Amino acid sequence: MTPTIEEPLTTARGAPARRRSLLDRIRAFQQPEPRTPPWQGRPEEAYHVLEGARAVIARGWIQDDWFARRPSDGPGDVAAACLVGAVVYAAQQSGSGDPAVKAGPALDYLWDAWQESRGLGGTGVAGLAAPRELRMARVRDLTRWNDQPCRTREEVLDLVDLATSRAVMAAVSGSR
Asked: Which Pfam family, any one, appears in the UniProt record (predicted)?
């Protein structure tokens, strides 16, 4: 017969260690590793898309259409764009992936900036998952705003700058 030695288990600090039950060990094994929340990294993506959109609008801005292309240039060269068209174009140019998905965070920051410019600021919605229908409603709002007859390119650039600054602040603070 083998003698049994029963010594209490202790932690590194000498405190009694708690034995984990089989169920605890199984649960720990089944727990997925913590993943980065889907909204993290979005302010940086939005920043890059907004910077690209600003460059397009600075080059040429239009109303009542999304894009204007030069006839002699290739299909990817946009001579001018409206606010939303510039964001979509910049999202397409920023690498692989669905441009509609990549443009989403930038459009959210623009919509928040537009609300803020109208005195309707608040906590904002940028960076939060938005249903497709809600994002499309925001696109319509921004398109209508862009197409108002009294609108100027400077106002559009100011809105893009405000949205860009909000994306930078969100990236620096680690929120959204």
From this structure: DUF6197
